[in-house]
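Before any further analysis, backbone shapes were mapped to integers, which produced the following:

***
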Amino acid sequence: MNCVDVLIVGAGPAGLSAALYLKRAGASFAIIDKSAPGGKLLNIAEIANYPGIQPTSGFELANALVNSVTSLGVEIGYGDVSSISKEGDKFIAKTDYEDYESLAVIIGTGLSNVPTIKGEKAFYSKGVSYCATCDGALYKGKDVAVIGHEEKALEEALYLANIVNKVTFIVDDDVINGSLTMVKTLENKNNVEIIYNGNVSEIKGEAVVTSLVCNNEEIAVSAVFPLSGEKSASAFLAPLGLKTKNGFIPVDENMMSEIPGLFAIGDVVDKKLRQVVTACSDGAISSTGVASYIRKIKR
């Protein structure tokens, strides 16, 4: 059992920010992630709205954030958390590698993709992908579809438009929630068709994806990028009986949930704006809230 004051679950921008502030405060903590440090930043082609930073790739920004933490001597550990429970004032986190005991936990696990379309799960990695920057090159010169209405879907559609034959951007709403400049850029692309209020009922194919059905019309495509089925990655918190809002975690001004000592940051939080800069802000805020909570517990 690894015993620390604070356990940070998730090494994306939010978790890394929390680790940076906690390290500088001299706190006893551990930070773990089930995949590579940097989170979904690693799969974003360009970040152009991070204050003070010229447009850069998500990979480069992720490396900068990771280095800012590891340069202070912080070790980012591996761990896929299966459950977190609480016994008295202490949390017990079980992972597939080792278990942790802590006085406080910071959840920064972000979002995970939940298949919602018929055929989506069956054709995953056979034409269905959640990362255009990872897999887009496989469909160079072919026709693909992107589904969503948030900025991530907009960014992925723009990226794909530069390498594929045609992008059918299916907006599952009546508006795209993203930069107006980016929307205009996408609208001006000759190889992009935008379908608003699109309802995709099925992804079809044999060995690989060959088409999808949108608003009862079959559209031939070689790949589908469904980017609207993301849900908060927080199922492992079930033993705590935590109440969520539409799957997201409500928090107070210190980023603490309804359960004392359980903090949440980044995309997993119930909030309006999910950007790298707000994730980093959440991490910084949570560190001060955690420090105050730990002091009270130890009195």
Q: What stands out?
A: The first helix runs from residue 13 to 24.
